[in-house]
Design brief:
The complex is a heterodimer of chains A (about 250) and B (about 325). Chain A is mainly α and about 250 residues long. Chain A is about 45% helix and about 5% strand. Chain A is built from six helices and six strands; from the N terminus they run E-E-E-H-H-H-H-H-E-E-H-E. Chain A has helices at about 55-80, 85-90, 90-115, 135-155, 165-190, 225-230; strands at about 20-25, 35, 50-55, 205, 210-215, 240. In chain A, helix 1 packs antiparallel against helix 4 (about 135-155) and helix 4 runs antiparallel to helix 5 (about 165-190). The longest helix of chain A is centred in the C-terminal third of the chain and has 25 residues, at about 165-190. Chain B contains eleven helices and two strands. Chain B is mainly α and about 325 residues long. Chain B folds into two domains: about 5-55, no CATH class; about 65-240 and about 305-330, Ferritin (Up-down Bundle), CATH 1.20.1260. A two-stranded antiparallel ribbon of chain B has the order 1-2. In chain B, a hairpin with a 2-residue loop joins strand 1 and strand 2. In chain B, about 50% of the residues lie in helices and about 0% in strands. The chains are: A mainly alpha (about 250), B mainly alpha (about 325). At the A-B interface, helix 3, helix 4, helix 5 and strand 4 of A face helix 4, helix 5, helix 6, helix 7 and helix 9 of B.
Chain lengths: ~250, ~325
């Protein structure tokens, strides 16, 4: 795996690759990342040295994906010790949650392996203090939030990619997240797999295909919006910023 | 150049020319500033713009042919799906209340996708007029004779269409990278198809257990009976799909099936190597509480299909009429 850094970099070399990232405080072992030379600091964000900047272009999106997958994987690991999983969940629900835990862990490990060591973000510290892991409703609602958000995030970040291979590779992950999302939604409310909060509803005007209002499209989200929604689940020092994915 | 004469000539061929121009009256906003100073030299450009707006809608004339082909294949797949669901809803009483609600939701999504794709393609949409249900043969040449009389068969075919759609859009996405808007649109269809596929699979587990509605989501999958009790995601090659051997191609490899890590290639759904990394045996994989195996490693990644293989599969569902009206991208 020594040449892992080359896979996604090759066909994006024509892009002017500004270097936003520098490791800071390496001797302190904090692995904190700071913005260096960034001209596009968003106003009102916390001081840069407390945030994790994901970077730009393909590596930025891969880091962004890596962050979201870390959050999901940590969630499915954490719920295994909660009262819902240990005593309430049905056999089917346990089987589903076990699969999801494996899938998300697999995504984390893959992304950790494929992102060049010089640009990968650190292992994030999560904060699930707002989630009640003891009831079915609260656990599955949180799972739904993370899965739906993952889909919206991947779809909304693809425009920052430059390499077709990265598009394909992340496409392989996002459809699995969508499958997860649909099943969790069906567990909570059967037939809500494409609910109006995640898919723009198409309302037919006649019996003819394509005639009506709406689109039937997933409601993708920008990195800025997704980060707003996920940062409450990350500890200080692990909160994300994606200044270049905008 | 006599502009009115041109319109009149076009009217002989297209009686709706005035309506086309009229319903898109906003195109005139773009030329209003020109006023009287419009020179003869500028007229051909103006006329060209006017007709691009009237017939072509938003800028499709600039789309590269490669992208047009991708979108047209997607459009024809959407028609295939739309009429499949519409037909069961409008011509049969096969489905129970819960499943009819789901199929209605899915049909409407597909209809929205048709609208979005046609808007992107404008005059370059193929076929130019919407096909009818008769353009498709949902028995696939007699392989599924009971497709509209047996719920089990109907949802078998539904799973095929949805899983195929996911693979098709995934294969198309990298080719849309030059157009960020269309890339995001295609991905926003792709994930909706995956949601459909997940639900159909959940529903089929219920069918196998003799339950429907919320109980279907409580039915257990079986790794040894994936054809009838699939997970909501694809595990390995799903035992070659719900109706092997016919459905094997939907879960099998595309072309090229193999390649070096940095290239685009299309392995079967059972693939566990991503960008040169074996995601099952990577050193960071857990070995204790949640042991990974080939099944879970393959489930974690859906695989794409190239357009040629997608067409080959879809062609099984084209009727003679469909061929005659020019669903040529299935060829």
């Amino acid at each position: 795996m020594s040449d892992k850094s080359s896979f996604f970099a090759q066909s994006s070399s024509f892009i002017q690759r500004r270097s936003f990232l520098k490791y800071a405080g390496a001797t302190a072992g904090t692995a904190a990342l700071v913005l260096a030379g960034c001209k596009d600091d968003a106003p009102g964000v916390e001081p840069a040295n407390t945030m994790v900047e994901v970077g730009s272009a393909d590596n930025g999106v891969l880091n962004y994906a890596y962050a979201l997958e870390q959050l999901e994987a940590a969630f499915y690991l954490r719920l295994r010790t909660g009262l819902y999983y240990t005593t309430i969940a049905t056999a089917a629900e346990k089987q589903i949650l076990d699969d999801l835990a494996k899938h998300e862990k697999t995504h984390v490990d893959f992304l950790k392996s494929v992102i060049p060591s010089g640009s990968i973000i650190k292992t994030l510290e999560v904060d699930f203090s707002s989630i009640n892991f003891d009831t079915r409703q609260t656990v599955l609602m949180a799972a739904m939030t993370f899965e739906d958000l993952g889909v919206a995030a991947y779809n909304g970040a693809a425009r920052y990619l430059t390499n077709p291979l990265t598009v394909l590779t992340l496409g392989k992950i996002v459809s699995v997240e969508a499958r997860h999302a649909a099943l969790i939604r069906d567990l909570l409310t059967y037939n809500s797999f494409t609910g109006s909060d995640v898919v723009t509803q198409f309302v037919p005007a006649s019996g003819l295909p394509g005639d009506g209002t709406g689109t039937g499209l997933e409601i993708s989200k920008t990195p800025a919006r997704v980060i707003e929604l996920v940062n409450p689940f990350l500890k200080d020092g692990s909160k994300l910023v994606a200044a270049s994915l905008a | 150049m006599d502009f009115i004469k041109i319109i009149t000539e076009i009217e002989k061929i297209d009686p709706e020319i005035y309506e086309r121009l009229d319903t898109r009256r906003r195109v005139f906003q773009h030329v209003s500033g020109l006023g009287k100073k419009l020179s003869a030299a500028a007229l051909p450009g103006l006329v060209s713009m006017l007709f691009n707006k009237a017939y072509g809608q938003s800028g499709n004339t600039s789309l590269p042919q490669g992208i047009v082909d991708i979108l047209n294949l997607a459009l024809q797949l959407e028609y295939l799906e739309y009429y499949f669901y519409d037909k069961v809803l409008t011509t049969t009483s096969l489905l129970n209340t819960a499943d009819a609600a789901a199929v209605t939701a899915i049909r409407n999504d597909e209809s929205g996708h048709i609208k979005v794709l046609r808007e992107a393609l404008g005059t370059r949409a193929k076929p130019q007029s919407a096909p009818t249900a008769d353009a498709f043969d949902y028995t696939a040449g007699g392989r599924f004779p009971n497709v509209f009389t047996s719920a089990a068969v109907f949802f078998t075919v539904a799973q095929c269409f949805e899983d195929l759609g996911v693979r098709a859009y995934k294969g198309a996405a990298p080719k849309l990278l030059s157009n960020k808007t269309l890339l995001e649109t295609a991905l926003n269809i792709h994930s909706v198809e995956a949601r459909h596929a997940s639900h159909i699979r959940t529903l089929r587990r219920g069918l196998s257990a003799g339950v429907s509605g919320p109980d279907a989501a409580q039915a257990l999958p079986s790794l040894t009976s994936l054809a009838t009790k699939p997970k909501s995601w694809i595990s390995g090659t799903d035992a070659d799909g719900p109706s092997a051997p016919f459905t094997a191609a939907i879960y099998g490899a595309g072309s090229p099936a193999v390649g070096v890590a940095a290239q685009l290639f299309y392995p079967a759904e059972s693939n566990v190597t991503q960008v040169g990394i074996n995601v099952q045996t990577t050193p960071m994989a857990p070995t204790n509480e949640l042991p990974l195996n080939a099944a879970s490693a393959s489930e974690a990644f859906d695989e794409a299909l190239n357009d040629g293989v997608v067409k080959d599969i879809a062609l099984n569902f084209r009727s003679a009429l469909g061929a005659s009206i020019g669903l040529e991208l299935f060829q």
